UniProtKB/TrEMBL annotation, chain A:
Sequence ranges of Low complexity compositional bias: 580-592
Protein name: DnaJ homolog subfamily C member 2
Protein localization: Cytoplasm, Cytosol
Ranges that cross the membrane: none
Region described as Disordered: 319-380, 566-593
Lineage start: Eukaryota, Metazoa, Chordata, Craniata, Vertebrata
Entry annotated with the keyword Cytoplasm: yes
Domain (SANT) ranges: 585-640
UniProtKB/TrEMBL annotation, chain B:
A GO-annotated cellular component: cytosol
Main location group: cytoplasm
Protein name: Heat shock protein 14
Source organism: Scleropages formosus
Cellular localisation: Cytoplasm, Cytosol
Gene: HSPA14
UniProt keywords, alphabetically: ATP-binding, Chaperone, Cytoplasm, Nucleotide-binding
Amino acid sequence: MWDVREPASHTDQGGSPCFPVFRKLNGDCVGKLKRGKMLKEALEGQLTAVCNSIAASVQFQVEPVGRWFEAFLKRRDRNVSASFQELEEEEELSEESEDDELQLEEYPMLKTLDPKDWKNQDHYAVLGLAHLRYKATQRQIKAAHKAMVLKHHPDKRKAAGEQIVEGDNDYFTCITKAIEILSDPVKRRAFDSVDPTFDNAVPSKSEGKENFFEVFGPVFERNARWAIKKHVPKLGTMDSSFEEVDNFYSFWYNFDSWREFSYLDEEEKEKAECRDERRWIEKQNRASRAQRKKEEMNRIRTLVDTAYSCDPRIRKFKEDEKARKESEKKAKAEAKRKEQEEKERARQAEMEAARQAKEKEEEEAKQAAQQAKKEKEIQKKAIKKERQKLRTSCKNWNYFADNEADSVKMMEEVEKLCDRLELVSLQSLNEVLASGSKEQGKAAVEKHVQEVNAQLQREREAELAARQAARGMEQGGSGAGGVSKGWNEEDLQLLIKAVNLFPAGTNARWEVIANYMNLHSTSGIKRNAKDVINKAKNLQKLDPLQKDEINKKAFEKFKKEHVAVPPTVDNAVPSERFDSSSSETSSPSWTTEEQKLLEQALKTFPVNTPERWEKIAAAIPGRSKKDCMKRYKELVEMVKAKKAAQEQVAAKSKK
Amino acid sequence: MAAIGVHFGYTCACVAVFKDGRADVVANDAGDRVTPAVVAYRETEQIVGIAAKQGRIRNAANTVVKVKQVLGRSFEDPEAQTHKSESKCPVVNKGGKPRYEIDAGEATKFVSPEEVAKLIFHKMKETAQSALGSDVNDAVITVPFEFGEMQKNALRHAAEEAGFNILRLIHEPSAALLAYGIGQDSSTGKSHVLVYKLGGTSLTVTVMEVNSGLYRVLATHTDHSTGGESFTQALAQHLASEFKKSFKHDVTGNPRAMMKLMNSADVAKHTLSTLGSSNCFVDSLYEGMDFDCSVSRARFELLCAPLFNKSIQPIKSLLERVSLSTNDINKVVLCGGSARIPKLQQMIREIFPDVELLNSIPTDEVIPVGAAIEAGILVGRDSFLLDEDSITVDCCAKDILVKEADESGADVYTVLVPSGTPLPARRQHTLQAPGSLTSLCLELYQSSSSSCALQEKVADIVLKNLDPIEEIRDIVTVATMKRDGSLHVTCVEQQTNKSEAITIAAAS
């Protein structure tokens, strides 16, 4: 099994790293490389030259196995190449060689030292290493000790004829003590920690303000020796980047020191005679060490704090940061303002566009209206002209009559025609009159007259039916009336409605009505069937005056409500109350008054009136043209139905 | 500091301990150095090892074998599906992961492959501890080269569950090389090694390059259909036919009888690796009839001849794939239990007549020993943690050669820096020249193929005005190659200390 330790050298022949490279080769060329192969002689004029570039390296995956892999990994992690490692080794070699000619500084006071006071002596000075101190390697210390022993050993001196103080009192004991301390890493560290030459001073703020780098640079460099971690970051210069400065301060704020103060222990543990004493001593020492350590940490802390507060770079970074923030803030505000402005502008543009669009629309509507008016006028004129034509032509034909009476009647008929016929039929009639003979003209006129008369007749019948319907409704409406105690108008209305809603023959009619009243009444009075019957009978008995009054009141109330609602909406969504109260006259919102007005209007504007329905609508307040037409159609239908029923009855009676 | 290496195979697991500078396989409580990777679930306990394997005859439905096949795989994985179809223990799908359905008394337990692996690892840990007499956690575990990230993680997880502190997962072929210490005694030199692993159910052939102590897998071939079990199967079939011949009963349809025969054949096969003949004896194999039969090694070899041929086949195809001839292979490492078979070893020897066949370590112990050695290297190091399992290294792309002449005057090329050398590298050679010459020329070439047929001249180094001397000159040539591939060559003539240096830049 090979040994697991880090391979020392990376050259061909392995071997000890202590020997320089050439030495190991000498033995080699004989054994290993005797291959019978020889280099060739250089040709004439051949020179050392590169004639081609070498292929670039390629990447391979290797198995993470074996000690050479570990060695490789270590080199990679330390970012050190093999040759660098060799260099390091060579450096070590050169150091060794330096050791031979190690310069030892003679310590002039050596001979006067008191061995009993060894604790206060400077061990480095004693060994002549005062110039190296904590930097001295173990090798150097050993070499120095050897040199000192050779020179100062009592035996040597005796041989040289010097006087020796017997026992431990000779100064040579100091040298022994020094090597004892310095050769033991723990003891040496303890001594290093309290190195008498170390300057513990921390510069004050005022000192640091002036020339920061000159004052603090050496101080940090000095204190860096206590760091457990290697590679202490340098203080740097004014041009150091933020990262560097940050790294520096975070290192020093988390400074891990190996400095410890066991060397200054007042009592020596080894001197104690019993366990208890030893414990006591230990406790004492621990306390004092902790105290000193704390002081030391405080010292470092103060140093770093002072440096931090004085550091011109920190100040600069802070200012930069502040400026940056401010500018950011400004930029933000600017951006916001701009955004708002942009919004405002957009809004205005939109409004302008809307306004223009509206204007345009209005203009167009206006023009359209004018156009329509013009057309209407033209049509009116045409109709007038046609009428005139008809009249004149009829006049020319002497109204197709022989005697005066006939002609008067015909004149009336023609007038009627003029009124009722529309533009197209008038035109056609005129054409017939103009082109045909008298007989033909008469036939045509008579035909039209008949048609018109039939139409008129129909209208009249419709009117009649409407009147009858209106009367029926009036009668239905006047089925109730009168005001009595506990019965306000609304309740009365409700009662009437209920009575109509539940006609005679309904199961338990009066209880149902009472219930209905209670449910729908706003007065909050509870009524029973008896009350309701009494009231209903009362109402039936009431004189017509009171009936009228009640009807009027009801109408007024309706009108009030009706006015409150815009007319178009009214028609589209008829309220249910009217629906139930006037179920006979299908269209709910038509009051008797309006009905009357409609009938009147229908009469005043005969069928052939131009824009007849518009005019009719205008005659009835709160009704549109469409409403009127609808109503009219309903009326017509009703009349027709009535007629049919009458005919049926007549047929039956005939049978 | 003790550390252990664990090999967790398809059929067997083995643990080796690194202590006091040497690695050794530890025998388990049954006295076997290799533990079958079989876990049997009983109502109250789980049994791992040989007892579970023998108990499988009666408890097949609750005995898990070859758990490594499904470890870290999803249920849909074809490998897992194959395992499912072969396993006597039902495998069910639980959220895309395979689970063993174990009948634990009244309830049915669903056991993950990781839990099974954990039990096996735990057994290995116990074994190592009993040998060391102290608690040991640090372990290196081997994985097959073809294992994916998921499987590695599953294995790692199972081992950690068992209480191991995993120093590293290493590939089985690398562990095999390490067991023989190939490339470990010097950090220079380049060689090719073929690792032939024939385990219980799988055959893996790997060609590795060892350069400057670093291992690199050039090519690998895995065949999951060939392995020791197929040999046992063949032998068991033969035994069954023998039984039929003498008792007129066909036992091939009886799974329990077949399992008994398989166990018997397994023992016989092991014996035949060392002895010329073996006796198979099965009590009450079928309907109370005992079976006794003697098998000779020759018979066994005859039975398995086609299988042996099939096992040998991949070697040649693999060498062809990496365009190496059998002469380019410097060493052959045998590992896996079935590589013990004398006939197989003989066949491999025939393929590589001049190559050292490494089989001094018992073949089924090679991998755990290698793992233990790696554990010994790693244990106690503070920075052994690796983020990735394999590391890419800058390597020299081509051989760097120098032209020389042999006695007859013909051109011969000597390799200064072989291709694949991890960079940065420094190689030192002492070249020789007749002392009568006053000027010398080192012509440097680079060549990508090992046959030196396609060289490309890169530089000349000329040493001039040398004083003629009696003896032969030594010229120490140091070639240093940087990570990017650029080369610096220094020649020093030893007798006169005349020197010449040149730097050749790398093509970008």
